Amino acid sequence: MHLSKNLYIFFAVVLSIDITDGYDYEMISRCIFSSKDLHDAELIDSYVFNKVELIRFNSSVGHYVGYTDLGIKNADRWNKGPELAREKTQLDGYCKHNAANDYSAILEKHVQPSVILRSGSPPGGTHHAILTCSAYDYYPKQIKVTWMRDGHEVTSGVISTEEQANGDWYYHIHSQLEYTPRSGEKISCMVEHASLDKPIEKYWDPSLPESERSKIAIGASGLVLGLVLALAGLIYYQRKKSNGRTLVPSG
Ligand SMILES: *[C@@H]1O[C@H](CO)[C@@H](O)[C@H](O)[C@H]1NC(C)=O
Prior knowledge:
Class II Histocompatibility Antigen, M Beta Chain, Chain B, domain 1, binds 2-acetamido-2-deoxy-beta-D-glucopyranose, MHC class II beta chain, transmembrane helix
């Protein structure tokens, strides 16, 4: 899987007091790193009152820094007290420890899409055909859906949605191809995703779908039955006619 160079992961601990009266005091812990080996991991602890950051601990700086009168006074006090020693253990104890767990639980989690290809008719009764290729219930979000016609990528007549969140951590996407069918061609939808060793490729089968085939089968049986009955009736009628002729008493 491709990981962005500037991957940032945040962990936040929020302690809030007095929210009912409209005040908010928060301690926000952020772990920021851009490499999976965590060599540049940085812990930023911010102490914020009503959106004003009073004090910050940045593990690369190594001590508390105050930003307001109150913040400066307390940063001085914490830098001399047990707070600083405890804070300094958090880069390893909190950031690096959790990051390893989160990598395996979130970043390395892959779920394969299920791909469905269906047809629809475009409005206005044109000679065009529309195919829709959908990929459902996959993770992570990034995915690539391509249309192929006789082995070549098709780009015109293609409309795709964004990756859409299901709301349960999984995603789905739809892509539509509008084209003029040619006989003997092979059209397929190809889906590439981090969960797949090789792309999923679904070929369009231009023969009629199951439901249409059964309707035609029912219609055809009705026709055959009707013909058989008509033929039987005709034979019966003919025999009756000829019987009538031969059975007429001669004397
Ligand atoms: C933390 O401190 C380092 C060194 O001064 C600085 O490069 C970095 O931008 C700081 N990080 C944040 C989020 O303030």
